[in-house]
Design brief:
Blueprint lengths: L6 E5 L4 H12 L3 E6 L4 H7 L3 E4 L5 H15 L4 E4 L13 H33 L2 E6 L20 H21 L4 E8 L5 H7 L5 H4 L5 H13 L9 E4 L12
Parallel strand pairs: 1-2, 1-4, 2-3, 4-5, 5-6, 6-7
The structure holds nicotinamide-adenine-dinucleotide (NAD).
Amino acid sequence: MRLENQVTIVTGAAQGIGASFARCFAAEGAKLIVVDRQESVREVAANIDATAHVGDVADATFVRGVVDATVAQHDTIDILVNNAGEVWPTGPLDEWEKALADYDALMGSNCRGAFLFGRAVAPIMVVGGGGNIINASTDHVNSAPERGRHHGHGAMDLYNASKWALNGFAFDWSKALAPHNVRVNNINMGATDTEMLRSWIGTDPDPEYVATWMKSDDIAEVAIQIIDEGPGGRTGDSIGLWAGHPTVLPPPE
Ligand SMILES: NC(=O)c1ccc[n+]([C@@H]2O[C@H](COP(=O)([O-])OP(=O)(O)OC[C@H]3O[C@@H](n4cnc5c(N)ncnc54)[C@H](O)[C@@H]3O)[C@@H](O)[C@H]2O)c1
């Protein structure tokens, strides 16, 4: 068991990649706390003997409550996976009121949630002698070699801005927390077969494209390998995983 008794919070765990993180980490012996605003996260929890919390990761009171309850239950927190996220089309020509609402919602779920959980959990990891924080980002931040330097779609400026912001957290937190054996890494995955991708692509996806999509359990396995590197392992890395490429942990940058 590679994660025996590791107390692990996974956000956005009701479905998709977050549910895979939860299931695969539990299969390696971790004690899971799963978080989502969908009630169905309770079913994920019931199947892996985990604790579920239903709420919004952008809500500071909710996040504080999850973290405090976890410490009361398990004394410590070893792993945080900031996975919750959402996307819909946004851009610079959107109507003003829609733009303001979209900014708060997308930055809230994708960026403020990671900020809140990171801030709440980091001091606990320091007291516990170490830990791992992994943020779910996107290949729009670290694109496949054949795609050039980056590839904004021209239709998701707020999603992309929220994920680029996670680099700021990972790069800075990794340095601040290195003396305390807390490692912080981002996984910048490309197309992975989940509800999010299928609803973005639409009802009739090109089968050749679908065949290249990654599997969420394979993303979870890469995350486990990052943790398995141990205290001397990478930190501050922004790891690209790309559709049509093997879903494997590359060497440290
Ligand atoms: N699927 C892909 O192709 C892909 C590619 C790149 C990055 N990602 C990232 O991976 C992560 C997981 O994506 P997925 O494809 O599994 O998506 P998904 O939509 O299938 O699952 C996301 C989960 O997060 C939850 N969530 C969203 N906002 C929340 C909030 N504010 N509070 C609480 N829960 C919230 C949702 O309820 C949902 O259960 C996301 O951060 C996403 O941006 C996914």
